[in-house]
């Protein structure tokens, strides 16, 4: 390979790298999200406070988890104490847990059968 071809090859490779670098830079500038301003910061803090309040309410109060299946939500401290008390007899606790899981995750009843359509030619 002569010097002229080698020089052209080096220039082509360098040019290719420069083109790829320019494309990467342009895509970074194009896809960069806008900076977080004070209004967005306050909005995110408000949403975080709402989520934390909802979680605290769910962890610290009684309520219906699923009223149709008669599932009740307990405060976390009561649930932990109940679990400790039930697991004094692990065998009975496991069978009770299985029965409650079957009740909670029972499949819905099957859909009613659709009447068969008769042909207009019958």
Strand-helix topology:
Elements: H1 3-31, H2 38-60, E1 63-66, E2 71-73, H3 76-86, H4 90-104
Antiparallel strand pairs: 1-2
Give the gist of this structure.
With 122 residues, the chain is mainly alpha-helical. It has helices at 3-31, 38-60, 76-86, 90-104; strands at residues 63-66, 71-73. The chain has a two-stranded antiparallel ribbon with strand order 1-2.
Task: Tell me about this structure.
- The protein has about 120 residues and is mostly helical.
- It is about 65% helix and about 5% strand.
- It has a two-stranded antiparallel ribbon with strand order 1-2.
- The longest helix has 29 residues.
- It is elongated, with a radius of gyration of 33 Å.
Average pLDDT, to the nearest integer? Answer: 87
Number of strands: 2
Flag low-confidence runs: none
The largest pleated sheet is described as:
2 strands, antiparallel
How much helical structure, as a percent, in the residues?
55-70%
Question: Which of globular, elongated, flat, extended, rod-shaped describes the shape?
Answer: elongated
The largest sheet has its strands arranged as 1-2
Q: What proportion of the residues form beta strands (DSSP E)?
A: 5-15%
Structure characteristics:
two-stranded antiparallel sheet, 122 residues, 64% helix, 4 helices
